[in-house]
Amino acid sequence: MSPDVARPWFTTRTEDGRTLPYACWALTEPLLTISSAPLGGGIGLRWWVINATVPMSYRRDDPDTHLVGLAEQADLRGPGVGLLTGVDVRRMVTRDEAGVQVWATVGLGTPVLAAAPRTAGPPPEQVGTINIVAALPVRLGEAALVNAVATITEAKTQALVELGLRATGTATDAVVVLCPPDGPEQRYGGPRSTWGGRLARVAHAAVRGGTAQRGGTAQGGGTAQGGGAPDPQGRQIGHGDKPAGRLSSPETPGR
Questions:
Q1: Which end of the chain is flanked by fewer CB atoms within 10 Å, N or C?
Q2: d(Cα 141, Cα 156) in Å, to the nearest integer?
């Protein structure tokens, strides 16, 4: 049974004279979630996810408070997860395989090597960011959830290396993994496990597709940033793709 994850919908808000979009997933029931997001990180049950475009000049030191406000504006209730990116989220890329779904916004304005020598230069931009949201149709144990985050990160890095980038990601990348809170527990989420392998393939494909979205950084409405070889299989949520799961209704608690 697939997790009750809806295809994301989009809304906008105005900040500092700019109209900026954000993507919202409103769940019809809470899902078990692991995340490194600035809002709703850690492991627990979550009712919604948002991924919000911000300008590359973003310097707020309270992103969690900012994201709570955006959730309230979208009428999302209960605990949730919030992400920020310099990419126009309307150019999000999705991939799926055997019930495993991934959505990615790929910003490569400031790619880094994780173990690069420390430098005395200015800090990198805070919102270049590759954000990946994944949903699996089976319950993962807590160790498998941690493993799934590692699997997604490895697949992302593989995609970047294949594109000729000397980088493991950006300094602000974030991952969200959602799965049902009940049912038989899967113990493994590594790339050679059944579900981890599927997750690796769709995450890799989504990052490759995201790098094919060309444009500048988010200013005003914003456009996706990125580079690398185009992906002829690239798809964009909101442009004719079929829904990734059952859509929630305004009467459900998540929205």
A1: N
A2: 22
